[in-house]
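OP here, attaching both records as promised.
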Amino acid sequence: MSDDVFMATPSEMPAAAPLSLLGMTGYQEGAVVSRTLLKRAGGTLTLFAFDAGQGLSEHTAPFDALVHILEGEAEITIAGITLKVPAGESVLMPANQPHAIHAPTRFKMLLTMIRSDRTTA
């Protein structure tokens, strides 16, 4: 195995090193901040920081996405059902289902997009 397998691009998180995800992105007033931590053919890891009152409007994605709330609390709506998700909890947003995210207060989340050939009914 070559050494470059463990190398990250400058914008990605380093391999084989402990990190504090909470410290990898900060809040900005009136904004949603995102940072891609890892991007591969099989999926991506993206860190988000939402200021209070901000959100992502309803949309669909062709891939399953796992949201893990790191700090604060999020309101996640999937196919018309709204969930309150506190820090430490995760939610799977199924592929091809409409979903939206709202920040009643500031929160940070890690989004894991999982690309696959699997289709949903």
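Record two, same layout:
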Amino acid sequence: MNEYTKKELEEAITALDSTLHKCEKMQDSGKLQSSQKTLNDRRAKALRIALALIEKEMEYSDAD
């Protein structure tokens, strides 16, 4: 995997977490039509996966 600084990973977490929050807010609003809801659900899942992988990478790099 590419080497990123702890600061870069923390900034990525902040940005992704903000975007995830916005996706969740849209889900809760009930304003999305079926296809938009599906797309938003997939985006939210992808963001959760990305956050989990970044956090795992940070744990791995802390163990070194």
